[in-house]
Amino acid sequence: MENLVLNGMAAEPETCMAFGLSDESSRGVSGIPQVLLLVASAIEKSIMKNENLSNASRKDAITIFHGSRTPNLSIKQYIERIFKFSGCSTSCFVVAYIYISKFLLLTGGHLTSLNAHRLLITSIMVAAKFLDD
């Protein structure tokens, strides 16, 4: 296993396992690493908060990531599926979450059920190219 680098210093394997960033880390009930469940939970909470605020007369910026309808899969199911079939490291999902946050901050957009899945798959792909290739 490669060492994770945090603030210019290599993290010990025990640190990676504590954060759920290694393949040997604790698995959740569904069989995916705990860190992925935490990322899914954070995204789902953000979607719920933003959709409640948007119902209270807030005008959202429409981005190229917006779909016309909400996908059938929940964020948790979507992350599980990507993890199962993509072969991405768990670190990619954490970096993807950071990419989504930065994109939304720079564009003034908000995470909703119409754009979350597309933003997620795009950011995971970019993170995998950066970290896993």
From TrEMBL:
<dbReference type="Pfam" id="PF08613">
    <property type="entry name" value="Cyclin"/>
</dbReference>
<protein>
    <recommendedName>
        <fullName>Cyclin</fullName>
    </recommendedName>
</protein>
<keyword id="KW-0132">Cell division</keyword>
<dbReference type="GO" id="GO:0019901">
    <property type="term" value="F:protein kinase binding"/>
</dbReference>
<comment type="similarity">
    <text>Belongs to the cyclin family. Cyclin U/P subfamily.</text>
</comment>
<dbReference type="GO" id="GO:0051301">
    <property type="term" value="P:cell division"/>
</dbReference>
<dbReference type="InterPro" id="IPR013922">
    <property type="entry name" value="Cyclin_PHO80-like"/>
</dbReference>
<keyword id="KW-0131">Cell cycle</keyword>
<dbReference type="InterPro" id="IPR036915">
    <property type="entry name" value="Cyclin-like_sf"/>
</dbReference>
